[in-house]
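Hey, I'm writing a tutorial for new members on how sequence and structure tokens pair up, and I'd like a real worked example in the thread rather than a made-up one. If someone can provide the structure for the chain below, I'll link this post from the tutorial.
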Amino acid sequence: MSEKRHTNRLIHETSPYLRQHAHNPVDWYPWGEEAFERARREDKPILLSIGYSACHWCHVMERESFEDEEIARLMNELFINIKVDREERPDLDAIYMSAVQAMTGHGGWPLTVFLTPEGVPFYGGTYFPPVDRHGLPAFPRVLRAVADAYRTRRGEIEKAGRELLAHVRTMNAWRPSERELTPQVLDTAYRALIEQFDPTHGGFGRAPKFPAPMVLEFLLRVYLRTGEAYALQMVEQTLVRMARGGIYDQLGGGFHRYAVDAQWLIPHFEKMLYDNALLAHVYVIAYQLTGNAFYREIAQETLDYVRREMTGPHGGFYAAQDADSEGEEGRFYIWTPAEIRAALGEREGEIVCRYFGVTEWGNFEGKNVLSVPRDPEVIARLEGITVAELEEIIRRARRTLRAYRERRVKPARDEKVLAAWNGLMLRSFARAAVVLERDDYYQAARRNAEFLLTALRRDGALWHTFAEGVAKIPAYQDDYACVIDGLLALYEADFDPRWFREAQALADAMLERFWDAEQGGFFYTSAEHADVIVRVKDAFDNATPSGNSVAAEVFLRLYHFTGEAAYWERAHAILRLFAEAMQRHPYGFGRMLCALDFMLAPALEIALVGDRQAPQTRAMRRLLAERYLPHAVVAFRHLEDEEAPRVIPLLRDREPLRDSEGRPAPCTAHVCENFTCHRPVTRPEELADLLPPKVPATRA
């Protein structure tokens, strides 16, 4: 009953995160003119709090401060209080995070920013405790000090705000490189990444450690381009160590957000859709490149988790699962030896504890995050059984323990659907459907595309978020870019011209709404987002790839499908704009480095014409699926299909070879390299001769 003593305006929002705060005693407003008008009328500063539903420390600050009657009284008396879901409004998050980073040298969530009634930031931070703790000032003390400064030192406040605003604008003032784009940019970036690599545990940097899937994909392309064995070694070591670590859910599949240590052992327990989309994709292409079945297994377990836990009945993919359950971080995922023995019996329980590194003293607050710290061969030898026997025991144990875990209280799930994140997952399911020959993955991808193009599109324009049956907030540039990317991947999965047509229409809409005609590159917001104080350019990869990097690569793909030079020119302009930054900060430009690699590579344009069901057609498609071909585009036309050549210029004038009696070959492959064509071929082995050779298989 105490939770319902108060109800504020957030009760009318669709965001689960905002709704979580609807019964705080804080007089919260959603972002909008109503709050700003009141701030101007009462001449009060604004307290802006930004977070997201799966954020552990956001929940902590809510419990400690926003649910506290006295702290809420101070907030209501001194400020106009606005609560924002960063996943709904990433544009606001980017602006005010930049301001806080400029003020304090660091950022994160919860983000706490103080604004003038015009929305200009003048002071901020992240988490503030309710009392002085760990060198952080108490939140009530901060509230009183900021309110006093606003009343008594207005001139200083306004000056600080102007300077911060100028700084944020400067951060988004990019200048195109005057030098030609050459492979030297890629080589410089690769050398810098070697310096950041952790040769002991894989990954980059120290604790906390994030997966960096875009960087891993770039390193796979470095290996393809140069044959540098260390580039592949960096990727493989990272993929294996992550998949055997606690950052990976050893029972249910899927990855947690990041590891708090350098060993990938203890995760920050929230599970985000984008991490699993990007990592599933990397494991799929690593399997393509190396043939290592371990990567296939992890990709499938991750995608199966998304289908089981993160897919709505409408076909959209949900945003996140919380880190907490029953008010405790990680409680759903951790184990004691006694729990495992009770579920499995003494003998198998002991084997499973040894396999997953489970001890009486634990590795996380007296309990255990499951990981695989030792090779199965070592465990089998210690237990006096064969590796095959151990693998069967672990297979059974995973099923049993997951069923046991299902009886626990699950972490909360954020069931809003975000266009960009769904585009990333659409691409992963579409690519996996082809490479892993999984029709269920194809069906998930197709349903998702249907959903995005109906529920999140209106009059040709995309919308950013969908929850409780409502689509709202005009889409951002990365929404467009990621959905286009997903649709192009789906086209190459089933060759339905509809997906290509929709992707091209959205690409043209993205150009019209977001392109900077003066400096090149895309703004993150369109003119429809009139309530932002700065139009930023999304350049750096964060947890998700930047919208500009995805756009550069999809434009290059569209160029090779259509031959329209305007697409290549836009991609070139993006890459020139960020070329210097790519070399200086390659860790933040993994996806854009992939796009540059595509632009500089000898691209393959492959047009197949024939009978979709013919064995030769299936054999050629399988041949293409077995190879990692990041610089190729593939189109297909059924013999009687007259629409496909109209939609996709790569298919125009592509005719089947015919025998002496005029009968068409079951499948003819037209392979061109940068618009210079080889002779058409009709046998899979002839097509193989025109492709890069496969890489020898590896093992985990």
